[in-house]
Queue: 3 jobs
Job 1
Amino acid sequence: MAKSNESHTEAEQERIDAVNRYQRGERSSKICKSLGRSRVWLRKWIRRYDNFEKSSNKEWFRDESRAPKNVHRKTDSKVEQLIINVRKSLMEGKTEDTKYRCIGADEIQFRMHELGYSEDETPSMATIKRIIKRNGM
């Protein structure tokens, strides 16, 4: 049986009570009707509880984050580091080649093309600007 505790929100307590009622043998349609919930909702929490018994997750009744688990189109860290290094070298301006050059995103993009990066491998100007800003340059 799912343990009931006073430190839960109303929604969490409702989930715990619904699963307890189901485990005592009460029909799911009756539980759902009395709570004003769908059978899908009840099955979700029963499934969560069943998975909880198999794992060590003691808070099966809590809402899970809906935030993405990973960033879909994050710039590769190697490319990001290259952009930072190119920006630093342009800012230093030690060589004749970089002495009088601009240091903006368009110049970094141009330098990446010079280094052999294709059009597809080179980030957009907006992405380069965001990387520069994020790194405080």
Note: The chain has two domains: 1-65, 77-134.
Job 2
Amino acid sequence: GGLSVVSQSGALGASLLLFAGDHPVPMGFSKFCHVGNGSDVNILEVLEYYAEDDSTKVVGMYLEGVSDGRAFMDVAQKVSRRKPLLVLKVGRSEQASAAAFSHTGSLAGSDRVYDGVFEQIGAIRVASMDDLLCAAKAFSMQKLPPGNRICVLTEAGGPGTVAADEIATSREGRLAEFSPKTVERLKGILPPMAMVGQPDGYVDMSAAAMEEQHSAALKEVLRDDGVDAVIVISVPPTFLSPVQVAKGLLEAKEGSEKPVVVCLMAGDWVKDARVLLESGGIPTFDMPEQAARAVLAMVKQARFQSKLAENEPRGCVAL
């Protein structure tokens, strides 16, 4: 695998390794390092190594605090310029800051300052261990989106609304913008009770959508220039074959570099379908909020990379 983790907590870091094994296709790790209080090897040395390591594609970090802020910014930015840097930073409250200090002697520092630093250096702050693993999985399987317009393609209204809420309330992304032609074609593809573009970028295919309609709808939205990424959500009714749905989604994704993630919400009923999708390079998730946050992390990384490209020095012509 391409995920490398550095952690100031051995227990939390080891738990990440175990949780990663619970995914339909177990997530692989490249490197893992627990630095504790950094009395020997410190977190900056490990980050410096990960930045240069070709087998490390994504870096995850559990952080309680740093002793040298400027050095941390310099090294962390070296990482984020080359690969996604996901940071689980604790210490949002005074109580958690005190707990961090008693654990490793790290001063957690001002949470607002850390937020500003992460934004400046291109690090992606995650709220939980689960968010870290979900984002890492998406990064390891899919290319970055060309923009921040995300389509929600769902057969279940409630879960679709959860995903739409995550997107609409974020600073990173927004719902996609369908062309009139896409809306017209989707209405021709899907059952009569399907709701298309209400709101724009959102499709409720309805529970009546069959396997081939899932595939055709995904292929259609991926063709739209107003769509940069797609979240597919399915709670397959018993008359649908989850494996056939998965095969159709894989076929629809072929030829498109836009990221697609899938949320299948039916436990063991969809396990084989999830294995099939992940083996084919499409990440899957248990819950719609997981899928949405993973895509939003990709949008944030793409925005940072775009800014870097804009600020690259241009060649000069001597006069």
Note: The chain has twelve helices and twelve strands.
Job 3
Amino acid sequence: MLSKKISHVVPLKDMELLVFFENGSIKKFDVKPIVNNFPEYEDLKNADLFNLVAVEPGGYGISWNSELDCSEGELWEGGIDIPLDADDFVSYVRYNTVSTGEVTEILGCSRQNIDSYVRRERLTPVKDFNRTKLFLKSDIEKLSKN
């Protein structure tokens, strides 16, 4: 039998999760039915809480806090297979994200210009670190054409 243990979980928009299993499978799981059918999960409508999802020790499930969790079996059975593996996902991130420094080179501008684009919501980082940000390469290409 294939292992159904979870290795990673990523919160998505619209209360969905991308669940990576140790056997290499990736599934998309919709949390909305759980929230709608079980009042104790109502708090997950708060995006800040929803985005705190983490894999439980041993990969036997996921949780948001000590009260809200979901088993690996439920995620496996209720998830929709995504025809990718973890290496595909890593490749996408590696080749389709750029750092603030790379953006300044592509656009020929300063970090201050990049910060201005972000403040004016012309550019949205996918990840914000202390001194740099990550952006989707496609967003930078669109911006460079304007």
Note: The chain is about 35% helix and 25% strand.
